[in-house]
Amino acid sequence: MSLEAETYTSTGQFSKAEELYKRMIDITQHHEGPESTSRELYNLSAALINQEKYKEAELTLRDLLIQLTGRLVDGDSGHFLEQKAGAVGLLCRALKGQGKSEEAEMLEKNAADQQKQLQARGNAYGLSQL
What we know:
Layout: H1 2-10, H2 14-32, H3 38-50, H4 54-69, H5 77-97, H6 101-124
Protein backbone atom coordinates (compact mmCIF):
# COMPACT_ATOMS: atom_id res chain seq x y z
CA MET A 1 0.00 0.00 0.00
CA SER A 2 2.91 2.34 0.78
CA LEU A 3 4.42 1.93 -2.69
CA GLU A 4 1.04 2.60 -4.27
CA ALA A 5 0.62 5.80 -2.22
CA GLU A 6 4.13 6.93 -3.17
CA THR A 7 3.32 6.28 -6.85
CA TYR A 8 0.17 8.40 -6.58
CA THR A 9 2.19 11.16 -4.95
CA SER A 10 4.95 11.07 -7.57
CA THR A 11 2.37 11.24 -10.37
CA GLY A 12 0.49 14.16 -8.81
CA GLN A 13 -2.57 12.12 -7.77
CA PHE A 14 -2.59 13.62 -4.30
CA SER A 15 -6.20 12.88 -3.38
CA LYS A 16 -5.67 9.16 -4.05
CA ALA A 17 -2.43 9.28 -2.06
CA GLU A 18 -4.28 11.03 0.77
CA GLU A 19 -6.88 8.25 0.91
CA LEU A 20 -4.21 5.54 1.06
CA TYR A 21 -2.13 7.32 3.70
CA LYS A 22 -5.22 7.74 5.89
CA ARG A 23 -6.00 4.02 5.55
CA MET A 24 -2.39 3.14 6.33
CA ILE A 25 -2.48 5.34 9.44
CA ASP A 26 -5.65 3.65 10.67
CA ILE A 27 -4.23 0.17 10.11
CA THR A 28 -0.85 0.99 11.67
CA GLN A 29 -2.44 2.64 14.71
CA HIS A 30 -4.65 -0.38 15.24
CA HIS A 31 -1.83 -2.93 15.00
CA GLU A 32 1.25 -1.08 16.23
CA GLY A 33 0.02 1.99 18.08
CA PRO A 34 -0.04 5.69 17.17
CA GLU A 35 3.71 6.14 17.74
CA SER A 36 4.37 4.00 14.65
CA THR A 37 2.64 6.33 12.21
CA SER A 38 5.15 9.17 11.87
CA ARG A 39 6.17 8.35 8.30
CA GLU A 40 2.56 8.07 7.12
CA LEU A 41 1.55 11.28 8.93
CA TYR A 42 4.44 13.11 7.26
CA ASN A 43 3.51 11.80 3.81
CA LEU A 44 -0.18 12.53 4.37
CA SER A 45 0.71 16.10 5.33
CA ALA A 46 2.70 16.56 2.13
CA ALA A 47 -0.22 15.24 0.07
CA LEU A 48 -2.59 17.62 1.87
CA ILE A 49 -0.32 20.61 1.25
CA ASN A 50 -0.11 19.72 -2.43
CA GLN A 51 -3.93 19.89 -2.52
CA GLU A 52 -3.86 23.22 -0.66
CA LYS A 53 -5.61 21.64 2.35
CA TYR A 54 -3.43 23.71 4.62
CA LYS A 55 -5.54 23.64 7.79
CA GLU A 56 -5.82 19.83 7.77
CA ALA A 57 -2.10 19.57 7.05
CA GLU A 58 -1.35 21.93 9.94
CA LEU A 59 -3.36 19.80 12.39
CA THR A 60 -1.75 16.59 11.15
CA LEU A 61 1.74 18.08 11.41
CA ARG A 62 1.15 19.40 14.92
CA ASP A 63 0.11 15.87 15.96
CA LEU A 64 3.21 14.48 14.28
CA LEU A 65 5.49 16.98 16.03
CA ILE A 66 4.00 16.09 19.41
CA GLN A 67 4.64 12.44 18.62
CA LEU A 68 8.24 13.07 17.52
CA THR A 69 9.01 15.35 20.46
CA GLY A 70 7.79 12.68 22.85
CA ARG A 71 10.24 10.10 21.54
CA LEU A 72 13.05 9.12 23.84
CA VAL A 73 16.50 10.32 22.91
CA ASP A 74 18.56 7.26 22.11
CA GLY A 75 21.04 5.96 19.58
CA ASP A 76 18.57 6.62 16.75
CA SER A 77 17.89 10.24 17.72
CA GLY A 78 19.36 11.58 14.50
CA HIS A 79 16.59 9.91 12.52
CA PHE A 80 13.87 11.49 14.68
CA LEU A 81 15.58 14.88 14.56
CA GLU A 82 15.60 14.72 10.76
CA GLN A 83 11.91 13.79 10.75
CA LYS A 84 11.16 16.65 13.11
CA ALA A 85 13.06 19.14 10.92
CA GLY A 86 11.14 17.96 7.85
CA ALA A 87 7.82 18.20 9.69
CA VAL A 88 8.62 21.74 10.83
CA GLY A 89 9.40 22.69 7.23
CA LEU A 90 6.07 21.31 6.05
CA LEU A 91 4.27 23.02 8.93
CA CYS A 92 5.77 26.34 7.84
CA ARG A 93 4.41 25.74 4.31
CA ALA A 94 0.97 24.90 5.73
CA LEU A 95 0.98 28.04 7.87
CA LYS A 96 2.07 30.25 4.98
CA GLY A 97 -0.65 28.71 2.83
CA GLN A 98 -3.18 29.95 5.40
CA GLY A 99 -1.65 33.43 5.51
CA LYS A 100 0.02 32.82 8.89
CA SER A 101 3.41 34.09 7.72
CA GLU A 102 4.43 35.58 11.07
CA GLU A 103 3.92 32.29 12.89
CA ALA A 104 5.75 30.43 10.12
CA GLU A 105 8.71 32.82 10.28
CA MET A 106 8.92 32.49 14.07
CA LEU A 107 8.80 28.70 13.76
CA GLU A 108 11.55 28.76 11.12
CA LYS A 109 13.73 30.94 13.36
CA ASN A 110 13.21 28.65 16.35
CA ALA A 111 14.01 25.60 14.21
CA ALA A 112 17.21 27.23 12.94
CA ASP A 113 18.26 28.09 16.51
CA GLN A 114 17.58 24.52 17.65
CA GLN A 115 19.59 23.15 14.73
CA LYS A 116 22.56 25.33 15.70
CA GLN A 117 22.32 24.11 19.31
CA LEU A 118 22.19 20.48 18.17
CA GLN A 119 25.18 20.95 15.92
CA ALA A 120 27.13 22.60 18.72
CA ARG A 121 26.20 19.79 21.10
CA GLY A 122 27.13 17.18 18.50
CA ASN A 123 30.49 18.82 17.86
CA ALA A 124 31.16 18.99 21.60
CA TYR A 125 30.60 15.25 21.89
CA GLY A 126 32.34 14.38 18.64
CA LEU A 127 29.05 13.63 16.91
CA SER A 128 29.40 15.87 13.88
CA GLN A 129 26.74 13.96 11.93
CA LEU A 130 23.88 15.67 13.88
